[in-house]
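Researcher: Let's do a round of design. I'm pasting the structure tokens now; please hold your answer until I've finished.
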């Protein structure tokens, strides 16, 4: 066994006894052809720069950066979950099912970060392996370039740039420990192997950078997607009208409208499903309100508070697995729309 070097194609050194001999012509020709091919490749593709340099030298820096990204992504979701818990569990009748649904974005974000965290660790390890120099055959000898096999001289701490092909090599003890195995050269595809080694560090660096971007971008997107998907699925399953939801008919500037009545421990809130023109209202208690059973809306003509021109006749009222109620309204010209009871108003007689 002996180490091949594109920098010295004329000689071969025995890895066992150190004897130097002339390289056989077919092997020399292959080495020279690979060296010529490598010379035409851009040197920057086999060099480490910026964040990739730090990640290849010390994977802990990458893990610390991922931890910062994870905290920045999780913090807003956790605060929103706490706020939802305060609202939903602070009611007179706590809504545990809706609180469990409100925890879904936090759970989806955390789970996504776990998987992307593994991707980050694997990507940084792949970068460290791709940029590691070949360990010396015998103690005391220099490490060899991962691309061309030339002996390496000491450079900046932990990094040695090959004097023949200008490839950056990580020469830390941990990196060299990964490459103690003997690499067998396949002369039939030597050029392809050399090019693959030259481009490996660039590909690994891109994956390492992409992993951090994914962790910051993918987690919120997945959380929103999962939440919306589950909400649509639960809202599409009809169940009986909820017995815990309370409604009242309230005189508003837009006419008599249905409000949802939410009783907290120290006040009562009237809300209108976010409809324009009807802001939520807080009252000390529920006295003076006209209670309304959502089921009595069937057969009534209603209109949307935010769009008075959108009117129709209520044909069905159902509940959903989310604990909300859904009113199906049939438009006069055909077609239907669905809305919760809150925010529906009765037409004002001219």
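Researcher: That's everything. Go ahead.
Model: Designed sequence:
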């Amino acid at each position: 066994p002996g180490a091949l070097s594109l920098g010295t194609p004329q000689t071969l050194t025995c890895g066992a006894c150190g004897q130097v001999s002339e390289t056989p012509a077919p092997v020399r020709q292959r080495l020279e052809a690979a060296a010529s091919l490598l010379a035409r490749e851009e040197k920057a593709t086999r060099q480490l720069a910026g964040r990739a340099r730090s990640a290849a030298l010390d994977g802990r820096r990458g893990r610390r950066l991922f931890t910062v990204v994870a905290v920045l992504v999780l913090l807003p979701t956790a605060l929103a979950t706490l706020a939802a818990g305060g609202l939903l569990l602070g009611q007179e009748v706590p809504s545990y099912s809706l609180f469990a649904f409100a925890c879904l974005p936090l759970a989806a974000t955390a789970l996504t970060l776990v998987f992307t965290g593994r991707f980050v660790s694997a990507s940084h390890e792949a970068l460290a392996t791709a940029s590691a120099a070949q360990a010396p055959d015998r103690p005391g000898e220099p490490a060899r370039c991962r691309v061309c096999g030339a002996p390496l001289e000491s450079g900046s701490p932990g990094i040695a740039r090959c004097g023949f092909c200008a490839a950056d090599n990580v020469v830390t003890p941990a990196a060299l420990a990964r490459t103690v195995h003997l690499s067998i050269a396949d002369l039939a595809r030597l050029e392809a192997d050399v090019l693959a080694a030259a481009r490996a560090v660039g590909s690994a660096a891109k994956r390492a950078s992409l992993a951090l971007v994914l962790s910051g971008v993918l987690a919120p997107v997945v959380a929103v997607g999962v939440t919306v998907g589950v909400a649509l699925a639960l809202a599409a399953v009809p169940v009986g009208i909820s017995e815990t939801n309370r409604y009242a008919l309230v005189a508003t500037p837009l006419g008599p409208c249905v409000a949802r009545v939410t009783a907290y421990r120290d006040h009562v809130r009237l809300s209108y499903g976010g409809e324009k023109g009807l802001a939520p209202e807080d009252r000390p208690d529920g006295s003076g309100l006209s209670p309304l059973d959502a089921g009595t809306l069937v057969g009534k003509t209603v209109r949307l508070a935010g769009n008075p021109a959108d009117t129709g006749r209520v044909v069905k009222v159902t509940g959903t697995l989310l604990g909300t109620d859904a009113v199906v309204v049939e438009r006069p010209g055909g077609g239907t729309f669905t809305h919760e009871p809150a925010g529906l108003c009765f037409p004002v007689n001219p």
